[in-house]
Amino acid sequence: MIKVLIVDDIPETRNHLTKLLSVDSEIDVAGTAGSGEEAIRVAMELRPDVIVMDINMPGMDGVAAAEIVSQRLPTSPIIMMSVHGEAEQLRRAIAAGAREFLVKPFSADEFSTTIKRVYERELGRREQLQAITPAPSGPQEPGSAEEDHQVVAVFSPKGGAGRTTIAANLALALMSETGGRVCLVDANLQFGDVGVLLNLNPKNRSILDAIEGGEPDADLLESVVVDHSTGIRVLLAPPSPEGADLVTPTYLRKIIDLLRVTHDWVVVDLPPALTDHTLGIMDAADQIVVLSALEITTIKNVRLFLEVADQLEYDRSKLRLVINRSDTAQGIRISDVEASIRRPVDGTVVSDGRLAVLAVNRGVPFVVSHPEAALSRDITRLARTLAGEPSTSASTEKPKKGLFARR
Ligand SMILES: Nc1ncnc2c1ncn2[C@@H]1O[C@H](COP(=O)(O)OP(=O)(O)OP(=O)(O)O)[C@@H](O)[C@H]1O
Ligand SMILES: [Mg+2]
Predict the structure, then answer these.
(1) Backbone Cα Rg of the chain
(2) From the CA of 324, which ligand is nearest?
(3) pTM above 0.85, yes or no
(4) How far away, in angstroms, is 162 Cα from ligand 2 center?
(5) CATH second-level architecture of 2-128?
(6) Tell me: the pLDDT tens digits for 81-126?
(7) Atom of ligand 1 nearest to the CA of 166
């Protein structure tokens, strides 16, 4: 039986819709709600297989409610109902996470067919996701030692090097390779892009909301981290740049330490600057993926960063040097980079602009949509490297002062 929740502000409509479905033996109307607010509450309780929601309701309308429900219950697909089939309404509904649109009035047959179709599609989607997400094993089993949990920071001294792209896809690859629980953190506090890349835009669920009461708190943090439909968890950057000031380096570090307790992997997308914020996370990190390009200024900055890392006494094995867009060399070879920075390159990621752009436009990372592409395989290989040779945890290092004071 498909468990359905009907949401409409008019009681007669709710009764009418319930009646339309009562003749179908495969569908069970498990509950109804008369407002957006009630819809959220009842949906969380019932966890319906399908939600049918009216777009126009007084107070919180269908779009606002769908936005929240689709974030909290990504496995309960929403069908939006409206009296007009306007393109603008359709666009808003889909942007809010609705999977299908029904224009009133509709027949009983049309109604139940749409519900079944949306439900079947959701089952198919879950199957696909399961195929890339092996059953939890290893580090996620009960009794797993927290010491096994790792923080992986993704850094580059240059903006636009591909940190966000690689961090998001790496988080997914770590989840599918190890079966572990993974949290992706957007530490680009002013201009975070992770939400755009993963098509996530929930209200009041950014890192700012985790420090509402001052000190970050484990329970508050847990309620703010967003469950992405792929299975990874995401801590988003503040919605606007001015929010960044409120997240102090100490708070940020505390948040990373708290997330490490409840996740096997914490992958952090770092901003391209050596500030107290980034250094605090680098201290906490077990591994730092340092992205370079086959381009002279980036290589120079990577070399400078590696010198700083030496002065900070980071273990060499903590740093993983990765060349992004490794096949777009203009006269520079990997061996030239290795000679310049006097250490071997740990991994390479090919360039595939078409796939990278497609993934951003769709809001689905390419390791999920195109696992066989060379770009995805490179990132999966990197995930295996990170998972295969855990370095010793650095979380016990004492927080230190800013870069120049340290040097
Ligand atoms: N291997 C790749 N092949 C093709 N395009 C790529 C690759 N890696 C990244 N890109 C593209 O390069 C652009 C910059 O990537 P991304 O936003 O991940 O970099 P970033 O270092 O996070 O940048 P920012 O400094 O803006 O935070 C994006 O358009 C992305 O799609
Ligand atoms: Mg970025």
Answers:
(1) 23
(2) 1
(3) no
(4) 7
(5) 3-Layer(aba) Sandwich (3.40)
(6) 998 777 777 778 877 888 888 998 999 999 999 999 999 988 988 8
(7) 18
